[in-house]
Each structure stands twice: as structure tokens, then as C-alpha cells.
Amino acid sequence: MDFTALDAFQRYPYPHYARARDEPGLVFSPELDAWLVSRYADVREALARHEDLSSVGALRPDTTLPESVRAELAKGIGGGGVVLSSDGEAHRRYRQPHNRGLSASSVAALRPFIAERTTRLVDEFAGDGGAELMGALARRLPGEVIGHLLGLDPADVPAVVRGGYRATDLFFRPMGLDDQIEAAREIARTQHLMDGYVRGRHAEPRADLITGFVHALAPESGEPTREQRAEIVSSLQNLLLAGHLTTTALMGTMLSHLLGHREQWETLCARPALIPDAVEECARFDAPIQGFRRRATRPVVLGGTQVAAGDTVFVSFGAANRDPAQFADPDRLDIFRRPERHLGFGHGVHACPGARLARAQLGTVLDELTRRLPGARLRPDAPIRMLPTLIHRSPERLEVQW
């Protein structure tokens, strides 16, 4: 893997997408080792053809792990299927507890907690004249919210959040062997922590999302088998990654773009009724998950290109959301746009089940910051550098002053 070329692609993929859309068919991307699906209509078609294009391997690692690292991972309790990378009946089975636990009523019940935690976090830095908002807010609030929803002890939330970041580092970033081994050990420890919760909720059910997963994936009255526990732990890990890393990412890009477009920020401060539209436009403009891989289960024609059975395509939400055939002047951020049918939260059977929860947090954060810190602006001596990733695209740091 050429990480230099991959990093450059991931930090700013939009010129690559634009060139791909200009070609008559799909373009093979050596950085992604996949056919790049970049036009809006083709992306929606690909997401609808789940029998022709399998989700298995949707998050194929960018690194090959040595045996010593795999041995450390084997000491955990994971490896079960998850909603993101499954098809058919397995996908429906894994999806069911997500849909129930992230329903409109569940998110509505969480709103007071989201508001209270947002206020407390902003209280910690509002009087300081400035803050690094990725660390002070964006990486904290979503983890606390998903931890509360799951039913985690607040003292365990930081370790669980860190375990999620360590997993993405291990599988998608180049690391030295010692760092890989330590990351694998940390992931295994997180799995055992979550397994303790699974066992505890089976013995003493509560009104939380971990209990919902236990009931859905181990419905029998007896002690869950190790295989069942591995499934539940894997699903919980997947939910934790999707539930806080992607919301963290979108919170960071949303704030960086709105603060970087001064007139848009000032309009929001004056007209808070536009906040829901601003959230949708930011999800369109710079999607936190830029796309997922799909594997062709049979020969298929997509975007005018013949794709062979077994070939991989990268279905790019980020590219589709900048397609001028669907969105006028798509490279311009415009909170008045109301971008209907954008793909910032995916589409089809694999659309993000946590979109409501993400929207609730993002809207609350914008309401709090525009009301309390209307003079906030990006620090001119701290240029924004994006993380080299397509699965939680966000700034490395977000230095803001007021």
C-alpha cells in the first residue's frame, strides 16, 4: 500500500472525484484499489443493487497485520458479523436492534441529556477566549451520548471511545509493530469490557441499548454462547464506531466550514431557524463517511462500465454529493440550499440508522455555539489539516477564538 498517495487522496478527495465524474464510465482508482463510483445517479443505483454488489468487506483494512498482532486480537472476543458488512437475512437481523434503539422516540428521550451535556462542555471553555474544538467538544459529546444510550458507566466511556480510535488506527494507518501490538491489546481489552456488559445485561436487563442487542441477538433464556457474545460485542463495537466517530467527524467539518464561511455563520447566529438546513448542507458538502466498498457478486454493468464478478467498487457518497448533475454549484456551501436527497447519511438498506441521533447532536451544538459564542472564528495562525481517512473525515484540530 502506497500510503503517501493514499493520504493525499484522503485528505482532499474532491479533485479526484471531479475528474472521475468527467470520464464516460467508472474510473479505476489505484489509491483505493477499486472502481470509483462518483456520479450521483450511479451511486444511488449501486446502493440499491445489494444483491449484485455485496457489502461484505465494506471496510476492508488498508493494512496487513503480522501474525503477532493477529494473535493479540484473538485474545479478545470479537469477529462476529456486523450490520455494516453483511447482506440479506444477516443484515436484517443485525439491523433490527439498531432500528429499535435509535428510533425517533429513543432520540427524543435523549434530547435533554444531549442539551445538558452540550451546555456543560461549552461551559468548560466559553470563558477562555478560545478552544481547540475537536478535543474540547467534538470528540467528547458523541462518545458521552452513545455511552449513555448504550448504558455504559460514564467512567468506562473514555476507554471505549479510545478503543474505537485505536481500531481505526490499527486497520487503516501505517504503524510500527510495537504500536500495532499495543493497539491490538487495547482493542481486546475493550472487547472484554463490553463482554462484561453483555453478560451483566443478560443476567439483569435494563432499559438501555446493550440490553436491546442482547435480547435481539441472544433471545434464548440460557447463558449466551461465546459465539453469540462475540456477535453482540462486534455489533456494539460497530455501533460505537458509527455512533461517535462519524458524528465527531461531521461536527468538526460542520464547524470548520461554517466558521470558515463568515457570512454563513453570521446568518445562523441571526436566524437560528436555519440550523436544521445548515446541518443537512454540511452533511452534503463534506460527508463524514466518504463511501464504502462493495464487491460484485456477478458480472454487472454500472455507470456504463463492465465490472467483473469479484471486483471491488468504492461507492462514494462524498463524490455524489458534489455532482453538478444533482446539485447546482455543488462546491459552494449554502445553508439556504435545503439539499434534498443528499447522501451524507447513505441511502437504501444500509442508510445510517443513527442519522436522527447525529442530527440531534449537531443541531444542539450549533444552537449552543451560535447563541453563546457568536463571535467565534477560526484562528488565522492555525490552518486546518484534514485527517487522512475516508471513513470519519474531519479536521485533525480545530482552533477557534472569540
TrEMBL record:
UniProt keyword GTP-binding present: no
Keywords, sorted A to Z: Heme, Iron, Metal-binding, Monooxygenase, Oxidoreductase
GO molecular function terms listed in the Swiss-Prot or TrEMBL record: heme binding; iron ion binding; monooxygenase activity; oxidoreductase activity, acting on paired donors, with incorporation or reduction of molecular oxygen
Residues spanning the signal sequence: none
Transmembrane segment boundaries: none
Highest taxon in the source lineage: Bacteria
InterPro entries: Cyt_P450, Cyt_P450_B, Cyt_P450_CS, Cyt_P450_sf
Annotated family: Belongs to the cytochrome P450 family.
Name by which UniProt lists this protein: Cytochrome P450
